[in-house]
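Lab notebook page, bench 4
Experiment: in silico fold of construct C2
Operator: M.H.
Input chain length: 192 residues
Purpose: comparison with the prior construct
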Amino acid sequence: VLDKFVEEVEQLTKSQDYAVVCSAIDKFAGYPPPVEAPWQKLVQHRAEILDSAKKQLAELCNVETPMEITVALPQFATYGEDVADARNVALSAYSKLIDTARSEIEMWIDRPEATIEGMSDTILMFSDYPEEVARIRLRLEKKRNSAVRVAEKQLTAALTADMSPFEVSALMDKYEPARDFLGAHLEKLEGR
């Protein structure tokens, strides 16, 4: 019977399931000497699994998007309080990424000379960011859409205005980078 316990403990030293390993450590604690040596190996194995989890959590501080943190964190739930500090550091990295996104979007909202393409690139860059960024991203989308409407009016007015070829060319150059939004209007003006 003791051999069975020793074999079971030794098998668990190959497991990566933290909860199962912890449970086995508790289950076999205090057994007689034949189980003690494999039990010590299991305790060491648990420490290695825990160190690996902490390193993986630390690596989350180097990711580029908060979604990567959101996706990764649930896999560390079984570690509970044993990785609380490392989890908190990862959550701080998440907050920093959210704050950076908000700041960058806010910069475009506050910029009077913000271009349609610049605003669009920023909206796209943060399009899959979580709810914490959605409201400010929507504000930038509204500003960009307003800028598109203004540009459409300017391009439409240029069709009938008495403008020199140089003025028409300058207007087209100004809005060419936003062709994705103003393509039809630019084509009409090109045909003029």
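Observations: The two ends are 94 Å apart (CA to CA). Residues 131-160 form the longest helix (30 residues).
Next step: discuss at group meeting.
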